[in-house]
Design brief:
By secondary structure, this protein is an alpha+beta fold. The protein has one domain. It is 36% helix and 13% strand. The protein has 3 helices and 4 strands. The protein starts with 11 loop residues before the first helix and ends with a strand.
Length: 92
């Protein structure tokens, strides 16, 4: 039986943004790796006739002047950075 939907979460983006801050250039390698994983997933799903929808559950903003060793990214406010999230869909 063919599944009608698949839900997947790649938590590395949220974890890395919390640790380094979403505006840090240090997040770029992780984002490139995540893009590559999504591309492989999309290639397989689209070839099988599925539609892929990518969403986020929240945005994130940089923490100003974090303490040494503290998290440099956070969310949970009513700011646009925290509330506006991307939605992308692809189809073959």
């Amino acid at each position: 039986m063919r599944r009608s939907s698949i839900i997947a979460q790649l938590g590395c983006v949220d974890d890395t943004f919390h640790a380094l801050g979403p505006s840090s250039p240090d997040v770029v390698p992780m984002l490139r790796g995540t893009d590559a994983r999504y591309r492989r997933l999309a290639d397989g799903l689209l070839a099988a006739g599925y539609v892929m929808i990518v969403v986020s559950d929240h945005g994130q903003h940089d923490v100003p002047n974090p303490p040494p060793g503290g998290k440099r990214g956070t969310h949970g406010t009513d700011s646009d950075q925290d509330c506006l999230v991307p939605c992308t869909w692809t189809r073959s």
